[in-house]
Amino acid sequence: MSASFPHLFTPLTIMGHEIRNRILSTGHQTWLAEDGRPGDALIAYHETRARGGVGLIVTESARFHASGIGEAKDLALTDDAAIPYYARLALAVQRQGAKIFGQLSHSGRVTRRMMNGMRGVVWAPSSVPENRFHTLPREMPAEMVAEIIAAAGEGARRYAEAGYDGVELMASHGLLFAQFLNPAVNRREDIYGGSDENRLRPLREALIAARRAVGKSTVLGLRISADEDSECGLDAASILAVCQRLSDEGLVDYINTTIGSMADPGASIHVVPPMEVAPGYVAAKAAVIRRGVSVPVLVAGRINQPQVAEAVLMAGQADMCGMTRALITDPDLPRKAQTGRSDEIRACIGCNQACIGHFHAGNPISCIQNPVAGREIQLGAPPAAARGLKVLIAGAGPAGMKAAVTAAQMGHHVILAEAGAQPGGQALLAQQLPERAEFGGLVTNLVTELRHAQVPIRLNTRVTRALIETERPDAVILATGSAPYPRVLEGEGGDVIQATELLAGRAKPGARVVIADWRCDQIGIGLAMRLTRLGHHVRLVVAGVCAGQNLQQYLRDLWIGRLHEAGIEVIPFARIYGLDRGTAWFLHTTSGAAVEVAGFDSLILVEGHVPDQTLEREIATVGLPTLSIGDCMIARSAEEAIYDGLVQTRQFLGALTAPVAAGE
Ligand code: SF4
Questions:
Q1: pLDDT per residue over 586-628, tens digit each?
Q2: Residue identifier of the C-alpha nearest atom 5 of ligand 1
Q3: Which terminus has fewer CB within 10 Å in the chain: N or C?
Q4: Residues 202-214: tens digit of each pLDDT
Q5: How remote is the CA of residue 509 from the centroid of ligand 1, in Å?
Q6: Residues 6+ apart with CB under 8 A from 26
Q7: CATH architecture of the region 390-484+611-657
Q8: What CA–CA distance (Å, rounded) separates 101 from 94?
Q9: Ligand 1, atom 1, residue with closest C-alpha
Q10: This prediction's pTM
């Protein structure tokens, strides 16, 4: 029980298993599995969150039948030899006081997976095209459906034998069991298609098989989208009917709700909704299911703060709250909230960059604000220094702030100097883009970390050679950022504005605007949207395949939809090279042909950035150990800046002082 969060810290008992609080880490792909099994990295990842106080961890979906396509980095639970690996994970989580449930999943037609670089054989209820990964699956024979049902029982048995407290069968997100439920993609005419009863049969029989396998001592739950929110997906009413039926029959002990479908780009945005989506937005839909069933209902969907979770629980919309990304960002969130230290929580900002962004790129998940996530073994506890150094850090952007926190945690005396009036660097500009104010939370979180590390920021203080000679530090860390690439255009005439100038409020564009977007990220899209809303006529010309090419898919697709709705013309594959009295000239990036965009008042350049090496050159002969991090090493994103601030700083300062061995 906690004074601030009385509902959040009230235990919940499901089938005799008492869960210590109402915070849940939902099943999410981590890319940390080893040969399809939990290994040390996955154990360290979940153990860290269990130690931080989470009530329940649902581990990521495991393939339980050979027809489900997967890779070595996905979990599989298709043979008994895997059981000891899962048992190690279960024990590690339970030792920290958390409960652990395991997911069973079959993706059916919704798969991007390759087998040895080739596309695998995709099986589904019927041969109906899938709209996101562009699969046209092969219809499962009835014998295969029966095999999958039996395999679900076997998978559940293996989880129970591994000591898991519960098993969760996935029928969410348009996955296989949802495909059977959906008449738009299940066109079968056998006992698994046609009537509601037939389409429910695979899910119902799989739950019966799982229950038979695990008995009454292991919790059995269902993950389902309360609404697939897709033109060819399941609607809320039909899902409610399924949940009521399964609850009434006693086939499920809880229902874990989300929304969306992985089967089409628009609906897939809900799988990991970005910051543009309101916190806790699924709760109202979960509440409808909760009113209709007699088992606990869990919910996820941008529940990023304990205050949001408490409100959901207090309103009676759900019995537990999935706070998955909040726990990736800050594994200690539950303990901090429970012990009155909510102001110390590093809140997830919904950027999608390093969690789902890494996963989609085929890398282990992490967090832009918490580089330790997914790297618990390599980056676990900060090393302590044998002797404290005086460290001067130039620049209080994300890299400099993280470096200052890191150096202070190692025991060094830190001076953090910022030339500007505020800390935050480029993040201050990024938060100016439409619906991106939450990006500024990254700065707030780092300022909080600095406060707890007792590092003040000297604002309006430019680090110079003279300052260094006055302060006489032992080491200098340069985090002075970057500046837009000074592109030289052929021709002349016309108003040319750098995007950073516009974001900083130092430029005013004319009525007709052309945005030349080399970066293909959030900046070009955001400026196009902002200026359109202000009444400008905007054309967005991108030097890539599409607007937002370099963004995480859910974020990209959300904004491509909004650009379309706003009627903004997007011209792909075009790189600016010149202008001539109201006409901008681009080069088609593949054909090399000229692309003419005529009739504009202002041309806005969205460029890459070049490192600011001014100070680096100025102090090159001072003779002090110096490290350049973040954008002033090479301009990338906030993720790399914060990673540098942690990892490079540890390595740099560690090399200057011998670390103290534990126990000395
Ligand atoms: Fe949240 Fe962004 Fe971290 Fe993902 S990378 S957990 S969205 S802050």
A1: 999 999 999 999 999 999 999 999 999 999 999 999 999 999 9
A2: 367
A3: C
A4: 999 999 999 999 9
A5: 33
A6: 58, 223, 256, 258, 298, 300, 322, 324
A7: 3-Layer(aba) Sandwich (3.40)
A8: 11
A9: 348
A10: 0.96
